[in-house]
Amino acid sequence: MTLLDHWAPSNWQSLDSGDVDLGSSAPVLLPNGLVFEIGKQGVGYLLSASHLGGTGASPSYQGQVCSGSWGGAIYYNGIIYVTCSSGLRALALNASAPSFSAVGTWQVNSAINGPPIVAGGLVWAADWNTGTLYGLDPQTGQAVVKQTTPGMEHFTTPAGSDGKLFLATGSTVEAYTIANPASSPAPPAPPPAPPPPPTCVLKLRSGRVKVHHPKPRGHHKHPAPPFGTVRLVATCSEDGGVTLGGVVTEHLGKKHRRGTARTRTFHVAKVTSTVTGGIARTLQLRVGPRLLHALARGIRASGSFSLTASNPEGTARAVAGGRLRL
């Protein structure tokens, strides 16, 4: 192997000479490229795995965890479980702004001081002084399982596999079945998928313009000028209000000196209405006298029409076009 980097506190020599160095606990890999290490004096450190920094470098974070620690730690579901002389500690990790803090709901028997593992949804650790194995609630530290075992050497830690626990004692290897393994905390439900955006389809029902001749009303001797209507069919996927408008281009036939065709544009007054999702709705646009006059003279006119639908789910647009005639 090739040494890539290292880290040690600046007072490592005095820690070594007093037997309160870092050597009793293995480093723990954490999210966001962090490493957790704790010394025998109970001071925990967060380091950057990609840049340990060398001797005397400032860690990303450090804090007093307990009065003494040995035997290791583990990470599970956002919590670092740390072996301490006064009982197992649970530290909530903040990986985005590197730091840790004691879990407020965690209260554990101070005799449970063996290195922990997680199996069957419980945190397992031994009291090697009295020969007892404990399965702890990961959030509270309360004992869910208490199992008497043969005598153990200090710092004994269990191993777990396929619903079983294995424990080395002074003269045997004990195997236990986790009869009713606790359920692991359910992962948070994924956010609901956003609803699909609304869609609309707009079709010109017919290119023929229907002409209307208003009758005179009241004392008016002369009726209002005739007007035309164009019908379009709108189909939208969602209920909502719609706005329909159009632009009609009149092709005058004659060309400019530059050789380009002459045109004239008419903007059709917008109309608003409502639609029911999935049901076709016929909408009418009103055509004014000037455009009717052009159509009556046989001048070509092509129109493009746009629909905008708005509802709580979003906005949809649709376009239709065609040649208009009387």
Question: What would you note in describing this structure?
Answer:
The chain has 326 residues and is mainly β. The protein has 2 domains: 7-177, 7 Propeller (Methylamine Dehydrogenase, Chain H); 200-324, Immunoglobulin-like. It contains 2 helices and 25 strands. It has helices spanning 12-17, 289-296; strands spanning 7-8, 28-30, 34-38, 43-48, 54-55, 61-64, 73-76, 79-82, 89-94, 99-102, 117-119, 122-127, 132-136, 143-148, 159-161, 164-168, 173-177, 200-204, 210-212, 227-236, 240-255, 261-275, 281-287, 300-311, 314-324. The strands form 7 sheets. It has a 4-stranded antiparallel sheet, with no helix packed on it. Strand 21 (240-255) and strand 22 (261-275) form a beta hairpin. The mean pLDDT is 87.
List its traits.
326 residues; mainly beta; Methylamine Dehydrogenase, Chain H; Immunoglobulin-like; 2 domains; 4-stranded antiparallel beta sheet; 2 helices; elongated
